[in-house]
Design a protein that fits this description.
The complex is a heterotrimer of chains A (92), B (334) and C (287). Helices cover 33% and strands 25% of the residues of chain A. By secondary structure, chain A is of the alpha+beta class. A three-stranded antiparallel β-sheet of chain A has the order 2-3-4, with no helix packed on it. In chain A, strands 1-5 form a two-stranded antiparallel ribbon. By secondary structure, chain B is α/β, with parallel strands linked by helices. Chain B contains 16 helices and seven strands. Chain C has two domains: 93 residues, no CATH class; 151 residues, Alpha-Beta Complex (Phosphoenolpyruvate Carboxykinase, domain 3), CATH 3.90.228. Chain C is built from seven helices and 17 strands. A six-stranded mixed β-sheet of chain C has the order 9-7-8-15-17-16, with helices on both faces. Chain C is globular, with a radius of gyration of 19 Å. Classes of the chains: A alpha+beta (92), B alpha/beta (334), C alpha+beta (287). At the A-C interface, β2, β3 and β4 of A face α5 and α6 of C.
């Protein structure tokens, strides 16, 4: 069961600044500032102009990030839902 | 500065800058009429005093930010509404279509039009995507749903921005009854899939908003929208004939005529004389009301204003309903 | 408007109109040594009666201007000076777009600025006022103005708002620096103190931020210093800013730059002297 496909804006739509373990992000299309904890910044990078489902994203970030939970797919879907509500990813 | 006359002259013709003696008063009046951004764009290349230039630059930045926010709200509404056709109205429409009317415009809530038969679906989709009702009151809710031309106001839970979902451009109980189906059918698609009204309907919506939907508060800004839209679209072939035909269709002909006459007198807008018709004695009263703002930003001419306030409610509802509505409003604890 | 005063404070000028003479007279006395503005006002404040008869009968002052809060309660005429100050705060909070506004008190030494930020009532104004009398230059007690282009803090030295117990600390100030004692205001007893002469004379000189402090005054706490991380500082400063959002990307760039290069600490103190000692240590490490 693949689930919905998401996509994020191109990298030039965002400004990133690392603040200790968090990333402050300025999202130009909305004018909003977000403070994101891992793996959210990695998810955005994995979907930048590249559509993907929750499973696709898990695979793309697996090299650099270990989602240490029982049900990684469910956790990823939840993160994607949060990012969608914030406007940072949208349905493709 | 007694009233807003100099502001309107300057907007119409920036070269009249030399007539300004009291810049503080002028800027204050413009701000109070939500026209500072528009003025800042009109004077962008004018040789104004340095301090004025700095204030106007701030206003241009403000307008840019308002534009970003407005277009983002439209974007999020589109994401929530999915396949329901979304027609943008007013300032957001001008910004999305890159019209001169959008330059420097302050934009408040998101106003959209959806077909009446899809209103319930739209409501459900917005609620599911994080919008909430602003008012809890059952009576106001009934008033809105039965008699108004829009859903009760919604506000987004996280972004704190309001959306007004209309199904037509005037209350169904008001006297002119625009053709809502025509508004939707003749709407124009933008590259991003959102829609705007056709040019004649955009102008007529501004006309309806100016006269039949308000007490003329914010009227100068509304009339400026009309001026900018007219100048932009009058250059197209057959425009005036289309505007007249459309005005008839929406039962807004006399309102459109008056709007044209007022725009000419206030902003020197080039207009079609046959559509504008002859001046009415009451035109002067409207102008008096529209210009009633002094150099400290205060509204003046209280009796003229009161007359227009009562009139605006009278237009929205038949007298018996109005009396009942005002009585119920007065009785409820604040 | 019958009565009028124009004021320049740092980079901002105000035009203040009033239906009554007293608030204007009190403002004029408090701001007497400030430079007279020459040109065009950035913001307008209007002190008006809600209804025409309230100008004379139980006179009460409603605060209006370029920007207004529709539900704000009017103040009695005796507190007209406070209404004027609140009016100026409101214009800045809602209308200032050239500088990023941080809700902080600021003082300067050797070209570097110390920002004191945190909740209202935590003691920032009093601390800044005291430091201003003890070798530091006072830059402001309500708003710190951060220039997004240069990253410098610009002085905005309005009259300092002393509240309740703090009044007693400045009894010995020169009488012409003090406004009337205002009792029964929404925040208790308030008295305004004109900033020191050098704060006024040098109000066009900005300073580079060097240290951010979150001071907390409480007689029951042990004095303590705790470092605050950049992320926490960032969040707390955005919450304390009224115009961060409106400044868009320049605001983001300016604030992230500020928190990544400027050390931040929380300090708990029981007295002004204790605070000054804690500050001296942190300051010499930071500059």
């Amino acid at each position: 069961m693949a689930g919905p496909t998401f996509v994020a804006d191109a990298p030039d739509a965002l400004s990133h600044v690392a603040l200790e373990s968090l990333t402050a992000i300025y999202h130009a299309p909305s004018g909003m500032t977000h403070l994101l904890a891992p793996p959210a910044p990695q998810i955005l990078a994995a979907l930048a102009n590249r559509p993907g489902t929750a499973e696709d994203v898990l695979a793309r970030i697996a090299e650099s990030f270990d989602l240490e939970t029982e049900d990684a797919a469910a956790a990823m879907s939840a993160r994607l839902g949060e990012l969608e509500a914030a406007g940072l990813v949208r349905r493709a | 500065m007694k009233d807003a006359r100099l502001l309107t002259r300057l907007l119409a013709d920036p070269a009249r800058m030399a007539e300004v003696r009291d810049w503080t008063g002028l800027i204050c009046t413009a701000r109070a009429e939500s026209l500072l951004g528009s003025l800042a764009f009109r004077l962008a290349d004018a040789p104004v005093p340095a301090q004025v230039a700095a204030i106007l630059e701030d206003a241009r930045q403000d307008a840019a930010y308002a534009r970003t926010q407005a277009l983002w709200e439209a974007e999020m509404a589109q994401r929530a509404l999915g396949d329901i056709p979304l027609i943008l109205l007013k300032g957001t429409a001008y910004a999305a279509a890159n019209l001169p009317a959008g330059e420097g415009r302050s934009i408040g809530d998101l106003d959209i039009l959806v077909p009446r038969e899809q209103l319930d679906t739209a409501e459900a989709a917005l609620l599911a995507a994080g919008w909430e009702w602003v008012k809890e009151d059952a009576y106001d809710d009934l008033y809105y749903r039965t008699w108004m031309h829009e859903l009760p106001p919604l506000i987004h839970r996280d972004r704190d921005r309001m959306i007004d979902v209309h199904h037509t451009i005037l209350p169904p109980t008001a006297r002119p009854t625009p053709d809502a189906a025509a508004l939707a059918n003749d709407s124009i698609a933008l590259p991003n899939g959102m829609r705007i009204l056709c040019p004649e309907d955009m102008i007529l919506h501004a006309v309806a908003h100016l006269f039949a939907d308000g007490d003329l508060a914010g009227g100068l800004r509304n009339l400026w929208d009309i001026d900018r839209l007219l100048r932009r679209f009058a250059v197209t072939e057959g425009f005036w004939a289309r505007l007249a035909a459309r005005a008839d269709r929406h039962q807004l002909r006399p309102h459109a005529a008056r709007a044209l006459r007022l725009a000419r007198r206030v902003y020197e807008t080039p207009i079609d004389n046959s559509l504008a018709g002859r001046a009415h004695a009451t035109d002067a009263l409207y102008i008096r009301r529209l210009l009633a703002r002094d150099g400290w930003g205060r509204e003046r001419r209280p009796f003229t204003r009161l007359g227009f306030y009562v009139r605006s409610h009278w237009l929205r509802m038949p007298p018996l309903m109005l009396a009942r509505h005002l009585l119920t409003k007065a009785r409820k604890p604040r | 408007m019958r009565h009028r005063l124009d004021l320049t404070i740092g980079p901002v000028s105000f035009r203040i109109g009033s239906a009554w003479p007293q608030p204007i007279a009190q403002l004029a006395a408090l701001y007497a040594p400030y430079p007279k503005p020459a040109g065009i006002a950035d913001f307008t404040v209007r002190l008006e009666p809600e209804k025409p008869w309230r100008r004379l009968v139980r006179p009460s002052v409603a605060i209006h201007g370029d920007y207004t809060l529709p539900d704000a309660a009017p103040l009695p005429l005796a507190q007209g000076l406070l209404a004027a100050e609140m009016g100026m705060n409101l214009q800045m909070a809602l209308g200032q777009k050239r500088f990023l506004l941080l809700h902080a008190a600021t003082v300067e030494r050797d070209g570097h600025a110390l920002l004191l930020t945190g909740h209202s009532g935590a003691g920032k104004s009093t601390l800044a006022a005291m430091l201003g009398e003890a070798g530091w230059r006072f830059l402001g007690d309500e708003f710190a103005l951060l220039d997004p282009v240069t990253g410098l803090i610009h002085p905005f030295p309005r009259a300092i708002s002393l509240k309740n117990q703090s009044l007693a600390l400045f009894d010995s100030a020169a009488p012409d620096r003090l406004g009337p004692v205002l009792k029964g205001t929404p925040k208790g007893t308030i008295r305004h103190l004109r900033p020191p002469a050098d704060a006024i004379a040098r109000m066009a000189e900005p300073a580079r931020p060097a240290l951010i402090l979150f001071p907390r005054f409480n007689r029951d706490f042990e004095p303590e210093t705790r470092p605050v991380g950049a992320a926490e500082t960032f969040v707390r400063l955005t919450q304390a800013s009224t115009n961060y959002v409106a400044l868009g990307r320049p605001g983001f760039d300016a604030l992230t730059r500020l928190v990544t290069v400027t050390p931040s600490f929380a300090i708990d103190y029981r007295s002004g002297e204790e605070a000054a000692a804690l500050i001296d240590t942190l300051w010499s490490n930071a500059t």
